Model the fold of this input.
Amino acid sequence: MEGRHSLPTLWIRLKETTFTFVPLLLTTFGGPNAHLGILHENIVKKARWVDEATFSELFAISSALPGPASTEIAYSLALVRNGFLCAFWAFVLWSVLGFTLMTSAAFGVSNLPQVTPLWLLRLEQTLSSAAVGIIALAAVRMGSSICVDRFTTAITILVAGAAMCYKVAWLYPALMAAGGLISLMWELLNSRHSRRKRKGRQPISLDDANVPEDYNANIAEEGELPVKASESTLPTVATNQSPRGLYTYPRWVAGTILTVVLLLLVITFPISTSEGVPIPLAIFATFYVVGSIIFGGGSVVIALLQSYCVTDRGWVTNQEFLLGLALIQALPGPNFNFAAYLGVLAMRAVTTNGFAQFVGGLLAFVGIFLPGLALMASVIPFWQKHRDHPMVASIFRGVKSAAVGLIFAAVWILWKQVRSAGDGATLPGTDEPVPSHEDFHSVVVVVSYALGCWWNWPTQFIVIAGGVMGGCVVDKV
Done:
């Protein structure tokens, strides 16, 4: 594993980061599940920043940490490839468009419709359908490289089934941990069984062996050494090395980051539940606490934000909250950009100054993203140091298999969201329910998968194709 001395200059690394992440600005639709497929296709398959094993391990780590998993993966990919500054720049590129659009929406929220327009609903459904095809392709590709035997395949199937059937905040980290522990126990049992088997073997004397008299002569004549069949037929084992080597940094840096994160949590937690504190401080503290305790992703963070911002503090109305929620689902970038929208509206309660309201959105944005990204940066050095240890490798074998199971589950979860996106909506001016067009969305999924698998289309073009296909949907009003 290469260190920092072997990396290109900072300028070259910044250019590489920019050219890799700018194309994702307009294509990261569909939420965190779809983002995983987009990152896999662009960072692993095309840019070849890391190999499959490294990507799956980073995904496993991000799933076990609080905060937005897809953003943590994007950030960590840039971090292990090009270092801290490039990772920060990658995060900016990853989230800036959604942040800008959501803050703009917050300023004009009073002029926006109180219900989701039908065209926006259809656009969201078709873009999400395209994302289902993208993540399904990523799941198949990762599964083919990680699920190499019955044991790893069984872990993947069990984890996928559990993730499809149960929706609780602690489930994903628990499934990752269970996969790692089961794999470790399996390896220990296999090792113990192999030792017993070796002890039970009786040594064979060469005098007793039936060896032809001219055996050595034949070897000498051919000028070759005998090779055991078992040795000659073993496949080459793939290494964990990435195409260029990973950026490394001292563990004391990681320890410092972790200490700061924990201290901030100790400070902000009482502030987030206190009355009478300045609004800017309350905004940062509230969103920092939310970002520190969210393990379940989308639906869990929405429930917490609704409780904090609508029910407890009354910063936004329920209609404003639901409108912002509908908008974030149809925009590219991380869904946690929703925090910027809420931060702007929270500052509206104490000031009409536009810049002050923008600062409120920025504080909420920084607060909700900071804990997860900082924790990811603090974990990576320890992962880099110990990932090749036999025991750690055994654990990660199960963790990576569990991660693939979660990706397969994400395909089903995202598809259910597409199917239910129009539930309760009615055609404008009528009481008739909006048609589901489920069959058409299934076609979008299949076409998106085929474009990526057999035609090797870039993900951004697949997403655009999904949007164009959405224009074919006609609702009779």
Remarks:
- The chain has 19 helices and no strands.
- The chain has one domain: 1-193+244-421+435-472.
